[in-house]
Amino acid sequence: MSTGSKIVSFHRKTKDRNDAAKFHRHYTFEIIPKTSLSGAMGRSDMEDGSIEMREWNDAEVRTGEEVGYDFDESDGWGKEDRGQCNCKGFVYCLIVTAFIGACVGVYFAVDSGLIALPGAEADSVEEIVEMKNCSLEHHIEWYQKPITTKDGQQYTVIGQIDHDPTSFTQGLTFANGVIYESVGLFKQSKVRILDPNSKEGDVLKSVDMGPKLFGEGMTVWHDKLVQITWKSKRGFIYDIESLEMVQDFKYETTNSEGWGITFDWCKDEFIVTDGSPYLHFWDTSTLEETRKVKAHRLSGEPAKNLNEIEYWRGRVLANVWFEDVILVINPDTGETEKEYDFSMLWPADERHQVGADVFNGISISDDEDMLYVTGKLWNRIHSVKLN
Ligand SMILES: [Ca+2]
């Protein structure tokens, strides 16, 4: 990749779920700035399903194929518009140039989620997370870096906010600038919305689940939240803003329990843990299992007690019950690729003195490299970056 260049990858899903050919479209291209003013670029989706590229201010754009990706040349790249200007006067041309350049820049910023327009939240959230999760080649160095618990602390603590120490965290996830938390224990289970930008971790909304349900994992799913419970085999879908329950469903797992759930935006499926070594994959339409993969630790042993999880960089990040670790699991093979040691984040002997329990809770954030992590009954949520 050229110096200063940037790989950008879009995985776009059309609104038309009945058109399988259009439903999953993956575009990758490279922006190569030539001057300090270059780089403004936009794209527009055409009615026929192709995309049209525009480049501006002397930025060179190479196709995905040229930078080593499989890419169908007929899939829109042949429609590059180099913005030829037929203006007669230089000033007129300059004004038109500036206007179009600004429009293209704004379009690109909106489309990439850098700025949001009223009424476009659902799409922008979806595309922001898609960009984070589907730009796999962008993280090739990370994939290739071996990390084991013997390497000690292989993360950087970025910050910390307060967290209710009576909150038995079972699920942690993020979208729309807020953290969504599923809290467990009978008579104490609830779904909460937290503000990660307030030092106190302000609770913006909280809904009790009643005395008989034990909340477990929860994930963002477009404009909904999908939550599972411990032993009741019941799941719930909530409106992401009001937390109003809009659907309940039954499910089955290897252990007939629910522990963790996350959403793979790239493959459009849920991934579920139940304390066994299995990752269960659910169809998002039927909420039924389509397959399951047995996960193994770096040691080769089955990865027992897989707990809270989060889909990130094409991998499943997993807490393990009663261990201060985060596993990085390849969901296709079930193989653990890295094991991060988090025993020094809040050492067990210190946190036990104030009644805090196990390390549990992993979430993405609005920084594609930063994660939120916490634990059951912890009085803090940390933001961290993994090496
Ligand atoms: Ca999570």
UniProtKB/TrEMBL annotation:
Q: Quote the protein name from its UniProt record.
A: Glutamine cyclotransferase
| Record's keyword terms, sorted | Membrane, Transmembrane, Transmembrane helix
- Can you name one GO molecular function term for this protein? glutaminyl-peptide cyclotransferase activity
Q: Known PANTHER family for this protein?
A: GLUTAMINYL-PEPTIDE CYCLOTRANSFERASE
Instruction: Name a Pfam family for this protein.
Output: Glu_cyclase_2
From the record, give the transmembrane residue ranges.
Answer: 89-110
